Amino acid sequence: MKNILISGLNGFVGYNLQSFLNEYNSYKIIGFSRKDSSYQFKSIDVVVHLAGKSHDLKNKTNFNDYYNSNFLLTKRMYDDFLNSDARTFIFISSVKAVADYSDTDLDEKCVPNPISDYGKTKLLAEEYLLKNIPSNKNLYILRPCMIYGPRNKGNLNLLINLINKKIPWILGSYNNKRSFCSINNLCFVIKHLIDSKTILNGIYNISDDNSISTNDLIKLISNALNINILILNMPKVIINGLALIGDRISYFPLNSDRLLKLTQSFIVSNQKIKRSLDLEEMPVKINDGLKNLFITKN
Question: Is the pLDDT of residue 86 over 90?
Fold first, then answer.
């Protein structure tokens, strides 16, 4: 049985990862505590570092908060890992460490150019880890795109709430493609990395196999919930004006950052991780995964 130390165990990814691994009888899950942390690495085989400050869509988080949670905590955990007998360190970073938007396939060869403080601090953490990889240890940096699944928060919940209230979708004039990542696909990859003796160290993007437009996502949600939603092609100049209002009023449902997240393209390639795992396709298909999520939330 392998002893797995997981930070952020009570968060969205941590909750689902623990449930996923508990389906097997091969792992003992140990939650990481920030108090007196170094002793926790004794008799640990694998460290999965999930904890950190997530992207704040309301822009209320300052750089220092991101820096302390996303860089300093990661540095502290990795230093403890290096001084322990643990063999594998898995860090959950983000595609935001590379770019905030991309209309072409974003792969691991792309030169990082993060815009947000969230992305910049994730990249700082990645760079620190990559500077020191001992020959007798494994380091895997995972860059998932937008993750969805049980207990997820963020823009998907916003879309579900809008549709449940039968509010017309006013962003129909935007044409985009976005990649998503099923939490089950992410957990599937993490399990393989926990068990692997052959996968090379490095950075891996994690996403479902196909991308989907936000307009098609709205249709998929509404069909799953059996709700007819009107999709309007409202002029973009009006939408941009509404987003500016949201930048000034925190409780307003739309702001500039959220508008970009909902309408800009962000296509992420998962070919490297599939080659490493010898997979033709990810276990969960995007339409099935999203549909099951929306049905469950209903």
Answer: yes
